[in-house]
Write a structure and sequence with these properties.
- The chain is an all-alpha fold.
- The protein has a single domain, classed as Heme Oxygenase, Chain A (Up-down Bundle).
- It is about 80% helix and about 0% strand.
- It contains ten helices and no strands.
- Helix 4 packs parallel to helix 6.
- The N and C termini lie far apart (about 45 Å).
- Bound molecules: 4-amino-5-hydroxymethyl-2-methylpyrimidine.
- 4-amino-5-hydroxymethyl-2-methylpyrimidine binds next to helix 4, helix 7 and helix 10.
Length: about 220
């Protein structure tokens, strides 16, 4: 079993909790209230901007030009996806970009920025991997079951699509290569980072589902 396959085994309970979450279920059936999706998309626009920054941070710190190029391409893509979501859903709902990050978005983006800045590139890569991998698996899971005329079709097609699939495959190969060169201690740090970011994925859906806001 390669390193990333082990990572996936580690987060199986978290992944199951995500698949069974009301947000994912209602996104799939199209019954998710549009106010809930609006909250999600507004937070996700803020998320993707920082996700891109985190990837650029890894690009700047990568040891080789090839790795740098790979990370800058991911970083660029995150912004392009964000723009695509903007054009579709911000216009559809006639909503404005949100400027305040709610708790899960705040925690997740700050975690990614801190980890990609202060930990090794290998640990940073493990921290950004769930954003790729979990979305691909959730996207495909939803795609298989979703009805055609789903209001969230554009979102589903983005994450179940071929372009996203390719980027995930590349990111997995990169992570496995970093893990091969990493010491056992460093590999443990990678596992911890992967698990933490996976948990924060669950929190991100959960904040959207409950339309959670700062309580104080
Ligand atoms: C919170 C979150 N994680 C991952 C992705 C996919 O890049 C996304 N758009 N939003």
């Amino acid at each position: 079993m390669n390193f990333t396959e082990q990572l996936w085994q580690d987060i199986q309970p978290i992944y199951d909790a995500i698949l069974n979450h009301g947000f994912v279920d209602e996104l799939m059936t199209g019954r998710l209230p549009s106010a809930t999706f609006q909250y999600y998309i507004q937070q996700d626009a803020l998320y993707l901007t920082d996700f891109s920054r985190a990837l650029n941070q890894l690009a700047a710190r990568a040891a080789t030009a090839d790795d740098s190029l790979q990370f800058t391409q991911f970083a660029q893509n995150a912004i392009l996806v964000e723009r695509g979501l903007h054009e579709t859903y911000f216009a559809l709902y006639d909503i404005q970009p949100e400027t305040a990050k709610m708790p899960a978005c705040f925690a997740y983006t700050n975690y990614l920025l801190a980890t990609t800045s202060l930990q090794s590139v290998a640990v940073g890569a493990a921290a950004v991997l769930p954003c790729f991998w979990i979305y691909r698996e959730v996207g495909k899971y939803i795609y298989r079951q979703a009805i055609r005329e789903n209001p969230y079709r554009s979102w589903i097609d983005t994450y179940a699509g071929e372009a996203f699939d390719l980027s995930v495959t590349q990111m997995l190969a990169l992570t496995d290569r970093f893990a091969e060169a990493a010491s056992p201690v460093e590999q443990d740090r990678m596992r911890d980072a992967f698990r933490m970011a996976s948990r924060l994925e669950w929190y991100f859906w959960n904040d959207a589902y409950t339309r959670h806001r700062w309580l104080v």
